[in-house]
Amino acid sequence: MGDMPRIWNETIEAHRDAVREATINATAALVAKHGLTGVTMSQIAKDTGIGRATLYKYFPDVESILHAWHERQIDQHLRGLVEVRDQTAQGFPRLEAVLTAYAQAVAHRGEHDNNLGDMLHRSEHVAAAHQHLREFIQEVITGAAATGAIRQDIPADELTAYCLHALAAAATLHDPAAVHRLVQTTLAGFRTSDRE
Amino acid sequence: MGDMPRIWNETIEAHRDAVREATINATAALVAKHGLTGVTMSQIAKDTGIGRATLYKYFPDVESILHAWHERQIDQHLRGLVEVRDQTAQGFPRLEAVLTAYAQAVAHRGEHDNNLGDMLHRSEHVAAAHQHLREFIQEVITGAAATGAIRQDIPADELTAYCLHALAAAATLHDPAAVHRLVQTTLAGFRTSDRE
Predict the structure, then answer these.
(1) What per-residue confidence (pLDDT) applies to A54?
(2) Which whole number is the average pLDDT over B61-65?
(3) A1-60 in CATH: which number?
(4) Cα Dmax for chain A
(5) SS3 for A77-130, per residue?
(6) Of B20, B28, B46, B138, which one is least surrounded by beta carbons within 10 A?
(7) How far is B63 from A15, CA to CA, in rounded Å?
(8) Can you count the helices (H) and strands (E) in chain B?
(9) Largest Cα–Cα distance in chain B?
(10) What's the CA gap between A135 and A149, in Å, rounded?
(11) Interface test with B, best of A106, A162, A163, A186 (most B CBs within 10 A)
(12) Where are the domains of chain A?
């Protein structure tokens, strides 16, 4: 019987996660259908079957749900990039694979965003998530530099800013072949310059 | 006496330009001193010595003056880039000089912007000015491609999006040497890839 509290706590935790997930999913579906301004807490309560009073215990307003949604998306995105990193060989292949996955995600996001990004990108959570992304990419770049696969004359933080900005151009591209060309062009910037 | 209307019209035109310039300059100075929210039409009228009634004939509100200011800055910026283009040899040197001037302007703007950019970047005039910038850069890239100085395997519009996005990273750089390195990294992306 000594295990009861732990099991009970885990059950509560799992239940809370399920409520959060259901709320976020229902909100995402409502935004997709009605746009940002067409979503209310009452509608979310109705669609999830969660009571309004309970819903308000989890989230004070629609905006906080949207933030949680965006955080979850960034988390999933980062986890995807970590998987790509771990499945590829150290050095240039890893850098190429990670930057390709990142550019594809940016291109995909570019298609589906509609002012939502603008609003959410200002939040502190999102700023922290972007900081994680920069650190992650910088680690991959430092790793590639350590194998001698890329130029050594530019600091890793500057190469990180360069490639994240360059690949942001993917948001304007709809053709996967164009995204591939953008990644190749950006990667060419990592090669040793013969004019320096 | 047949020239009178023309001279008179030119005088009026010059006077109008002077009023517009004085208004824009005074507004820019007030924003620098008090921030965006601390600027009123009355204060602008007082600082310029232009009557309030006259001022309202030129601009309906502070925001329209700020837009005129931003347009003027973009115009000056583009004229500067055109000068750089015309003073450099066709091909890679011209591309390098123009992209360097652009990156320096972005770095300079990055230091001085304070939310003003966010507000103004949404205007139609600014969208048109950005379109001019893209067209201008694309022409320079097409010119460099025609001399065989850069890779031919990526369409010029994609190279334009690539380099304008990459050089936007200059807004986060304060060190001129770092801006130079960013331009060199970005230019390396224009060289023929040996992995394609």
Answers:
(1) 93
(2) 91
(3) 1.10.10.60
(4) 73
(5) HHHHHHHHHHCCCCCHHHHHHHHHHHHHHHHHHHHHCCCHHHHHCCCHHHHHHH
(6) B46
(7) 51
(8) 9, 0
(9) 73
(10) 19
(11) A162
(12) 1-60, 62-196
Task: Please report residues of B whose CB lies closer than 8 A to that of A190.
Answer: 185, 188
Q: Return the SS3 of B107.
A: helix
For domain B62-196, give the CATH superfamily: Tetracycline Repressor, domain 2 (1.10.357.10)
Tokens of A97: 């694979």
Cβ A138 vs Cβ A160: under 8 Å: yes
Number of separate helices (H) and strands (E) present in chain A: 9, 0
Centroid of chain to Cα B128: 11
Query: Cβ of A185 and B158 within 8 Å?
Result: yes
CB contact under 8 A, B185 and A158: yes
The Cα A136–Cα A143 span in angstroms is 11
Enter the tokens of residue A87: 């499945």
Residue A188 to residue B186, Cβ atoms within 8 A: no
Nearest CA in chain B to A178: B158
Q: What is the pLDDT of residues A42-69, one digit of tens each?
A: 999 999 999 999 999 999 999 899 888 8
Residue with tokens 């304070």: B114
Using the Cα atoms of residue A115, residue B108, residue B97 and residue A153 in order, give the sign of their dihedral.
negative
Contact B188, A193 (CB under 8 A): yes
Prediction ipTM score:
0.74
